[in-house]
Amino acid sequence: MTLPEPEVIHAGGTFATQTLNNLGCQYNYNDEYVKAFVEYAGKANGRIADLGCGYGASTKRMLDAGAAHVIANDLSKEQLDIFYKSLDEKDRRRVELIPGNALELGDKIPANSLAGIFAASWLNFLQPEEIQRAMKVFYDLMLPGGKLCILTASCYSDLMETAQDVVSARKAAGDTWPGLWSKKLYSGPFAHHLPEFMHCLDPDVLEREAKAVGFKIEKAGYIDFGSVFQALKVDGREWAGLLAVKP
């Protein structure tokens, strides 16, 4: 079978690979949250899951760091096939491919069995109730002491750069989910890579929802995405990251 060649996107450097299902991009960015989780994964005593892994850029970092067993999950089986084809035999023996919706893995991954979960760049495609469900899934699948890492576009990303009056009004009104997004709020150059709906999530929202299901927060904050990808620079708060532990 001939696999498609993913489109690489350039914005002040090679920074992203377009997904085949048009759900945004896999970001090739090794920020402080990614580095901390990859270091943990390399030493973890148990299986690590990279949920919504795209073409496996972060999965490969975990394997390179020494992770013993990594589950690679994505909605797109084709993307997982592209990832698997890129691995050598040694790494293939440490990888388990599980295609499908990350929110429906309870029948494929036993509860309390994962040492860590990495979820980057896909909670932005979920409705509020789905985000809450995702947090519960993460918590239930994880071993006590396991680590969670989440990365998302924030309300201060390029997605909402021209809609800051909307964000400010929502936050002033106490809106629980101020980052609900549609294409009419976007005036950037990558509209054809994006679906009609997205959800920008700030660190306080990630922290609130992780705490609600029982996680202990290690770190939550904004990521200066534009420091690496100048075309996406807004004000240094373009992305949000979270590191949390199941007690």
Lay out the secondary structure.
Elements lengths: L7 E3 L3 E5 L6 E3 L4 H12 L3 E5 L5 H9 L4 E5 L2 H9 L3 H4 L2 E5 L14 E7 L7 H14 E12 L10 H9 L7 E3 L14 E3 L3 H11 L2 E8 L15 E7 L2
Parallel strand pairs: 4-5, 4-7, 5-6, 7-8
Antiparallel strand pairs: 1-2, 2-3, 8-12, 9-10, 11-12
Helix pairs in contact: 1-2
Pfam family, one: Methyltransf_25
Protein name: Methyltransferase domain-containing protein
Organism: Hypsibius exemplaris
How is the CATH topology named?
Rossmann fold
Mean pLDDT: 87
Could you say how many structural domains there are in total? 1
What radius of gyration results from the CA coordinates?
17 Å
Q: Helix amount, in percent?
A: 25-40%
| Lateral strand order in the biggest sheet | 6-5-4-7-8-12-11
| CATH homologous superfamily grouping | Vaccinia Virus protein VP39
Pfam families: Methyltransf_25 (PF13649)
InterPro entries: Methyltransf_25, SAM-dependent_MTases_sf
Domain Methyltransferase: 48-146
Protein name: Methyltransferase domain-containing protein
What's the gist of this structure?
The chain has 247 residues and is α/β, with parallel strands linked by helices. It is 28% helix and 27% strand. It has one domain: Rossmann fold, CATH 3.40.50.
What labels would you give this structure?
247 residues, alpha/beta, Rossmann fold, 12 strands, Methyltransf_25, SAM-dependent_MTases_sf
